[in-house]
Design brief:
Strand content of chain A: under 5%
Number of strands of chain B: 10
Oligomer: heterodimer
Strand content of chain B: 15-25%
Low-confidence stretches of chain B: none
Number of strands of chain A: 0
Number of helices of chain B: 9
Mean pLDDT of chain A: 71
Order of helices and strands of chain A: HHHHH
Helix content of chain B: 25-40%
Distance between the termini of chain A: 52 Å
């Protein structure tokens, strides 16, 4: 079992939010999670979890670049095409 | 344009918490795709999705501090569409809901449809959904407005302090360059000053973070508005501002509605006479 599979099983437990940290070991045993994962999962040791998952890089979680113009949406309740948020010159230069 | 080409793109959401939110439909799409493009909010979540399909490609590599995110997003769209153009069954996997505060999935679908390809969005559990459950807020109780923080700052808004206000991406408040992953105290001071023009300085606000791993706890920190200047904010922090004023009844509208109601009752009674 991979650490990600162990986390998936944990994430599907209906009683997860009721289980106190000191009772998590029992939950992990019930789910047949390998012993090697117990300590990082119980202590929420981020670095160990990342190492076990084989993950190294930093994550960026921004995916919104909202419209910065104040025009009313036109046909179909969509902003005008020239104000596409990805059209950097059309949008941001007018803001600054 | 009528859909005739073989390539396709489905953008779907895997929710926020690993294992807890993904649907069976989403998993089937991922497992059966020719190519999966992935934007996760946690490295371990990314690893988890990679294990579902051997050709999973992270979109994280398009981000670069100092490069406008507008360019990163454009490059993400081009990368996804280039595989659709090769007539492949492409799936775009995004954290949360692919259509909520996420421009890439919307634009990919718009462009693919325009080019004649099959394109579809499948909903996912968003951070907003988690927020309502974790904080016990019903947006219908007092009403609720929400904005991307920088947009809230640079556009004049009519804020109703008798409703909830939710500000997303608060960690990059005031970033008009789209080139940074966090902004400083000067930008945050402008945000606090703006909010203090609407709410009392000692108004309680909430910093919320939804857990990306099931072993994480929810962040639900209540602070005074003025403390927003110094509190630690992360990329996935959200600012929730509860109402500071009571809702005011619109007496004129209420009277008009009462009159209608009385008329209706009179007609109804006449029918039974």
């Amino acid at each position: 079992m991979q650490i990600t599979q162990a986390l998936e099983k944990i994430g599907q437990q209906p009683d997860l939010k009721k289980v106190a940290v000191d009772k998590r070991k029992k939950l992990l045993e019930k789910l047949s999670v390998p012993d090697v994962f117990h300590i990082p999962l119980i202590s929420n040791d981020r670095k160990s979890l990342e190492r076990l998952a084989g993950f190294k890089k930093d994550i960026v979680c921004y995916i919104a670049a909202p419209e910065k113009e104040s025009d009313m949406p036109k046909d179909g309740n969509k902003p005008p095409q020239e104000d596409n948020p990805l059209n950097e010159e059309a949008t941001l230069s007018r803001v600054s | 344009m009528e859909q005739t080409l073989q390539g396709s793109i489905v953008c779907l959401g895997i929710g926020i918490t690993l294992g807890s939110h993904i649907t069976q439909l989403a998993r089937n799409y991922i497992e059966q795709a020719d190519v999966v493009f992935l934007l996760a909010s946690d490295g371990i979540v990314e690893q988890w999705i990679c294990e579902m399909n051997d050709d999973t490609r992270s979109l994280q590599y398009f981000y670069q501090e100092g490069i406008s995110r507008a360019i990163s997003y454009k490059n993400m769209i081009n990368a996804i569409l280039s595989e659709v153009h090769k007539n492949k069954k492409v799936v775009g996997v995004f954290y949360g809901h692919p259509g909520v505060f996420a421009c890439v999935p919307h634009l990919v679908i718009q462009q693919a449809k325009k080019q004649g390809y099959y394109a579809l969005m499948e909903a996912g559990i968003s951070a907003e959904d988690c927020l309502y459950a974790d904080l016990g807020i019903d947006p219908g109780e007092y009403g609720c407005a929400q904005f991307e923080t920088s947009q809230f700052m640079i556009c004049k808004r009519k804020i109703d302090p008798s409703a909830y206000l939710i500000l997303w991406q608060v960690c990059i408040a005031g970033d008009i360059s789209l080139k940074t992953f966090s902004t400083g105290i000067k930008q945050r001071k402008i945000l606090v000053d703006l909010l203090e023009s609407i709410y009392p300085k000692d108004h309680n606000v909430i910093i919320y973070e939804a857990p990306t791993l099931p072993i994480h706890a929810v962040r639900n920190d209540t602070i005074k508005l003025a403390e927003l200047l110094t509190v630690t904010l992360n990329q996935h922090s959200t600012l929730v501002i509860p109402p500071s004023e009571k809702m005011i009844m619109n007496k004129e509208i209420l009277e008009q509605l009462n009159e209608l109601s009385n008329e209706h009752r009179a007609i109804h009674l006449c029918q039974f006479d």
